Amino acid sequence: MEDPSKSFKSEDNLGNLASWSTITQTTSQTITKRDRWKGKIDFLIACMGFSIGLGNVWRFPYLCYKNGGGAFLLPYFVSVIVAGVPLFLLEVALGQFMSKGAIAAWDICPLFRGIGCASTMINFLVNSYYTVILGWAFHFIFASFSKELPWAKCGHSWNTNSCIDAVVRTNLSNSTSLLRQHIFGADPASEYWENRVLRISNGIDNLGTIQWDLALCLLLAWTIIFLAICRGIKTSGKIMYITATTPYIFMIILLIRTAQLEGALNGITYYLKPDWDKLTDMTTEGNNEFSKE
């Protein structure tokens, strides 16, 4: 006769197997529901979008020119090869292997979960000030649709008496007055930026009022960001095709246009002429790290 205790144990084992099977199926269903890239090209385009941005168009040339020209490229490429690329590959590989977010990916080693929290906070801070730059860009885009560019000439309400146009009609017999204007003068573009766009106050104790035009431009930038990421990679993966390729298009257009200007070769030579003394300046090293952001 069969021992009843064995039958009960076998039934318990079958129940455990059934519960484990249910848990496994639920887990697999949860994993399959997670959004994934449709193909390798989408992931590569996304990586390109995170690697190339507005800073490559307007900030990197300025920092390169300011910090020794061609001499700046030496520590830049060394730091990129030694630190930038390896850290980038490690971060991407960990995310791809774990198929989780920046914080949950460190479940592989909970001791380093703070790295995920720090990277998330850094992304939040960087996106905060980059969105402000996008708001400024929207302001200039809307202002450029006017019949005459408001920053091209003086004579506006935000210009001061020190504003000097690019072309000035003056009495050449009074050269002292002309020299004084060029020493203490300001170009209309700078005054438009400081007095019209930013409306800088006269001190930190005077905060001024909200610039509603900039606030609306900032709201527009955040709205576009929300619409781009609200549905995950289903929408952001497609938008990356535009945002990742746009900086390359801008740089190619700027390269072609500047190469056609008079004295372009002299300007490029002066821009890339190495100043090796800058390598001993710690400010250059700091700007080098800032340019890789």
From TrEMBL:
Give me the residues that bind Na(+) 2, please: G49
Domain of life, per UniProt, equals Eukaryota
Membrane topology, from the record: Multi-pass membrane protein
Q: Which UniProt keywords apply?
A: Disulfide bond, Membrane, Metal-binding, Sodium, Symport, Transmembrane, Transmembrane helix, Transport
Q: Indicate which residues the UniProt annotation says bind Na(+) 1.
A: N56
The entry's localization annotation reads: Membrane
Q: Does the keyword Disulfide bond apply?
A: yes
Cystine crosslinks: C154-C163
Looking up InterPro entries in the UniProt record yields: Na/ntran_symport, SNS_sf
What are the annotated GO cellular component locations?
A: plasma membrane
Q: Name one Pfam family in it.
A: SNF
Which Gene Ontology MF annotations are present? Answer: metal ion binding; symporter activity
What SUPFAM superfamilies does the record point to?
SNF-like
- This chain's protein is named Transporter
